[in-house]
Amino acid sequence: MALTPKSRERRLLIDNLRKQGNYLKNVNGYYKPVRSPQINKDNLLPCQNCHGFYSAKLLYRHKKRCLGTSAGSNCRADSQSHLASIINKKVDVQMQEQVFPRMRADKISLEAKKDPLICAFGSRYLKTHREKHFILVTSRKMRELSRLLLFMKKIDPSITNLFGALKPKYFNYFVEATKKVAQYDEVKDAYSAPTFAMNIATSLKQCCEIALTLSLTTNISTSTAEVESDLKNMIHLFTSNWRFEVSNQAANDLSIKKWNKVTIVPLADDLKKLRVHLIERAKDAITSLNNNENDEKAFTTLLETIYCRVILLNRKRPGELERMTLYSYNECINKTDYDEYDSLLTPTEKILLKSFKRVVIRGKRGRGVPVSFSCDVQDHIGLLLTLRPKFVDVKNPFLFGKPGFLTSVAGYKILQKYAHSSGAKNPSSITCTKLRKHLATLSQLFSMKETEIDQLATFMGHTIGVHKNSYRLPDDIHQVAKISKLLILLENGCSNEFKGKTLDEIDVNIEGDLIEEQSNETAKMESTYEDNDLEHNEQKTKKFMVTEKENMPRGKIKKGRKREHVPWTEEQKKVVEQYFFEHIKQKIPPKKWECEKLYEESGELLKNKEWKKIKVFIQNVYSKNIK
Length: 627
Hints:
With 627 residues, this protein is mostly helical. It has helices spanning 8-25, 59-67, 75-87, 93-99, 107-114, 116-128, 134-155, 162-165, 171-181, 194-217, 224-240, 242-259, 268-291, 296-314, 318-322, 326-331, 347-355, 375-391, 411-421, 432-442, 450-460, 464-470, 475-492, 511-544, 548-551, 570-579, 581-586, 592-602, 611-623; strands at 44-46, 53-55, 184-185, 190-191, 357-362, 368-373. The strands form three sheets. The chain has a two-stranded antiparallel sheet. Strands 3-4 form a two-stranded antiparallel sheet. The chain has a two-stranded antiparallel sheet with strand order 5-6.
């Protein structure tokens, strides 16, 4: 008040005083924006410097003026966390420092940060799962509860927080809100997001347990016995009634979606191409590093190729290998003196035992998962560790630490990157999950004992039940290729001839009938095509009055003679089908130059077949599902 009226300094001080007053009153739900009073209070966020409330979309502009520097990319997230700390003063410090900055800055995250019970749930979950990658999982689960709470507030505006909603009278509201969040379609009677509908009940029961603990350990104005009774009743309702209202239908929808899902395993040629491509890129990167040790791009390439080669050899989950620490690799020294077991190993196995390095890392559900490193990969890692201090921060604990960051590389992205650049025919099939399924599927080709299957399942980091149910030969292949033989035997009444044999030992001779049918069908179609072609040429000759010589194929039919049908021999069919196997498989007609190339390579075998006949033959094969 001592300053000159209407002066700039006095006006700024009064503005700051007004902002401070609004900031102190917002605990009671009072929000007054600095500009545009019509803005909804849900879209207002405070400035951490001057404590004024501004539109969430334009907050970065004010912070740039207020702080004199750029607000940064986490401007809205930081302001949300600051606002939540005012309303919810009992937030865990670990939540504020680790989880809140990683949450998307929208109204769902703001609701989660303001709700004391949701924050307590996240804090408990983070203490239970202490690995760094569970920070994102904690954020996701908190947002799921927040989204559910927002829908319940729309149903009943009297609900203010999750703790107050955990009453038996609101159980039907939970069911209704879950169906909306999981996008339940009443016409189709199906969930678009069945996983959410199945898992949210577990989170809600844990919230009830946390709320019960809070009611017993803190002083609440209402009757503690009444609150305790309501929470126990809610746990009983979620345990007994939730499966009838939500879970059973969601589980059925989830299983139905998996029934007709096609499993595509990677091709052996694609894996070979990828391995050769990785080795070539690694050699180029090593050459560049030898010429210039400060080449960060070459260092990153070498790091990524090593990661992909380890994945390709061990078929591990990408997250498990990403979180492998530098300490675990350096401290693991394999013992190579196994004289007592030399008699049990073959010479090849003895060489592999001495050349490979085995490191056990943390896998799913805390299991120990072994990872093997070949000799050349160990040499590349040695070079990587020598140059590591120049590119990777000392505080980065991961073996595959990302240059310039404190995190590890994104494994699945790197694998897809090199799969596409390797020239593979189907790069989308080269994923970590499909590589694991590929290993378990091909292991059925070997006569493995039960103990060996147990060792393989342990190496892959899952149980024998998961190995048999999820990673073995796909159901569509097994049912079509194996069970169909048994059905054919029963249909033909020949089951007595194969008593005591396994499905693999049973050989149903249906190939001869199919080949004969294929030959007859092919010959019939070719004859029809050539007859139609001859009739078309004769009509064209009469219509346009051109000479007979111009309408005849080159050097095949002489003037004045009728065309004779020359049937295909079995040897000709076999050669053409083998040469154009991929064309038949993909139902693509061969081009002229491809047919002429086959014509030249076959010599005298196809001398009576021109390129058009070869092309038509391939089209007939795949168009009638002969192949």
